[in-house]
Design goal:
The chain is 37% helix and 16% strand. It is α+β, with helices and mostly antiparallel strands. The protein has a domain of 102 residues. The strands form seven sheets. Strands 1-2 form a two-stranded antiparallel ribbon. A two-stranded antiparallel ribbon has the order 3-4. Strand 3 and strand 4 form a beta hairpin. It is elongated, with a radius of gyration of 24 Å. Keywords: Metal-binding, Repeat, Zinc, Zinc-finger. This is Zinc-finger double-stranded RNA-binding domain-containing protein. Pfam families: zf-met. It comes from Thanatephorus cucumeris (strain AG1-IA) (Rice sheath blight fungus).
Length: 251
């Protein structure tokens, strides 16, 4: 006899008990480690983090050993083991994404780098992080990647004055971090460091729902493929539409 604590059921044999754990929607088993998880998210977390597993987050597939996983990465995901980087990195990819505001004077290897350029406020178009957030919020009417509650209030621009001087440095009112100059303090305040996350990873498949303060941070997370959502065509199409839409509206 075998007993399932979670389901409060008895089984006539270990075989029947294991069949129940394999087939029941209340159990998410890792048979290699003989661990039983209550949700698929926790099982995925275990597969990614455990040293006993050689798990591909792109395909949700566990391999027998590291050599098999490496071979899979090279064959299916263009991973370069000589430099320990994905071929989507700046080492392996050309800078073929051009900023429509700066022309060929500003070229980038991926969409997240272009968005980071916009957020930095150095683009000739005058596009800033705050303007970019508003543009994306207007286009993301279904809140596929944005948090509507946090976008209602918008971004508040905070600037420090000479009153921030505490006797030996310029001090941030929010975190009490100190800076040598007023310009450095205002650069700190202009960053998203004290803002609430505006973006989230789309919940498709095994999407992790991680949250981000910037569009470039979300885009980089998707491009890295760390949670596997990048393989969905809907995600790829959405990111392409996002960047295309920003180009069309801002320029």
């Amino acid at each position: 006899m075998a007993y399932c604590d979670r389901c409060d059921r008895w089984f006539n044999s270990e075989y029947a008990y294991n069949a129940h754990r394999r087939d029941s929607s209340s159990h998410y088993m890792c048979w290699k480690c003989d661990k039983d998880f209550q949700t698929s998210t926790r099982l995925d977390q275990h597969l990614r983090q455990s040293s006993r597993h050689n798990y591909c987050t792109y395909c949700d597939e566990d391999f027998e050993d590291q050599d098999d996983l490496n071979e899979h990465y090279e064959d299916c995901h263009e991973f370069c083991h000589s430099c320990n980087m994905h071929r989507n990195s700046s080492i392996h990819r050309p800078r073929n994404i051009t900023c429509p505001g700066n022309g060929r004077n500003a070229q980038f290897v991926n969409k997240s780098a272009l968005l980071l350029h916009f957020e930095g406020g150095s683009c000739k178009s005058g596009l800033t992080r705050q303007k970019l957030n508003r543009l994306i919020a207007e286009r993301d009417s279904s809140n596929f990647i944005t948090n509507p509650n946090r976008l209602l209030t918008g971004s508040t621009e905070t600037w420090a004055t000479q009153k921030a001087w505490n006797g030996h440095a310029y001090e941030c009112y929010f975190c009490h971090k100190e800076f040598r100059s007023l310009a450095q303090l205002n650069q700190h305040l202009a960053s998203p460091v004290h803002e609430q996350p505006l973006y989230h990873c789309p919940k498709l498949g095994h999407g992790c729902r991680a949250q981000f303060k910037t569009a470039s941070g979300l885009c980089q997370h998707i491009e890295d493929g760390s949670c596997g959502v990048a393989r969905f065509k809907a995600i790829q199409d959405s990111m392409e539409i996002l960047v295309r839409g920003v180009r069309r509206i801002a320029f």
